[in-house]
Amino acid sequence: MNPRARIAGLGKYLPAHIRTNADIEKLVDTSDAWIQERTGVRERRIAADNESASTMGIEAGRQALEQAEIDPAELDLVLSATTSPDGTFPATASLIQDGVGAVRAGAFDVTAACVGFLSALATGSQFIETGSYKRILVVGTEVLSRIVDWTDRDTCILFGDAAGAVVLEASDQGGPLSFVFHSDGSRADKLYAHGPATRRDIDDHDYHFISMDGRHIFKFAVQAMESAAREAIEAAGMKIEDVDLLVPHQANARIIRATAKALGLPEERAMVNVDRYGNTSAASIPVALREAWEEGRLHDGDRVVLMTFGGGLSWGAMVLDWAPVGPLSAAAEPAHATASGS
Ligand code: ACO
After folding, report:
1. Fold topology of 177-321
2. Residue positions annotated with a catalytic role
3. How many whole angstroms from 302 Cα to the centroid of ligand 1?
4. Which tens digits make up the pLDDT trace of 145-178?
5. 3-class SS at 54?
6. What is the model's pTM?
7. Cα 154 to averaged position of ligand 1 atoms, centre (Å)
8. Is 78 helix (H, G, I), strand (E, B) or coil?
């Protein structure tokens, strides 16, 4: 049997500074009541000047490594997902690799907007399931506050900064049972942020700010997450009622509730923390997963569905077989764990 990619450690980092809806009322024509009713967001975190995707990713990564009781020098690979990297290059993953002390590991970024973390998690799992690598750090980290136009009330109410991380370790239990990914690049203009190398014939002065057709994305989000979750659940040989916990991308509480309803699941079965952090793109699922664990909502053998959508447009879902986090017991060590990269 191939090794499984158990999640052995979970980490999160939230910048200390809180920006409330009342703070945003001072920036744009909006109200706390409107934001809460339409999005469920009450407050979000804002990175300090000396913080970035890499510094926050390092903090989240360290916490995940501590929980897994893994020496960073044992890591084979560091993957990072971000839409707000420290720079165009080097990869944010390389900065995190250095920061956590993963002296033997390779490192690269996986970029797919809000689908980035799930994409990186699936990528890392493959390295483990093929036997190539044994221990991988996967980080989702964002400083969206630096690509949000704080004079645009359509977008600035939604986003925040955060980092989350997981350590994957070869095991005979846990890890992904299935995943699906989809993309429709013909709708790239519905949700995007240009960068320094964007086409020069596009006249867009605020080239690096998030631009979004909110109503279009809302409808797309519910339909995309529902269909991806159904596909992944079927691919795992399960039924909807077998799902113990949904961990959706935290974009909007209404989107989460509507997706749970569309799947025929009670909304209490979905993890929600968008009220405290807003949409943190690639960081939202690992932070929500860590907080689900902190709240005692993850149990041995649970079937956990991660699902997400975002710029691309892109969307995807994954079913996890939940195994306890922490150090690998001798019993769980796969008999043939002789990975070529270790
Ligand atoms: N405060 C007060 N009023 C506002 C605000 C605001 N911040 N923003 C818009 N309005 C007004 C509009 O102007 C509009 O007024 P009108 O009726 O006079 O025209 C009214 O409120 C309703 O606007 P809608 O856009 O229809 O409001 P909706 O209920 O759709 O909520 C929202 C807007 C919250 C943006 C919603 O569409 C949404 O969440 N969409 C999905 C966003 C999303 O998930 N994006 C993912 C990004 S992921 C990534 O790439 C990082």
Report:
1. Peroxisomal Thiolase; Chain A, domain 1 (3.40.47)
2. 114, 249, 279
3. 35
4. 999 999 999 999 999 999 999 999 999 999 999 9
5. helix
6. 0.94
7. 5
8. strand
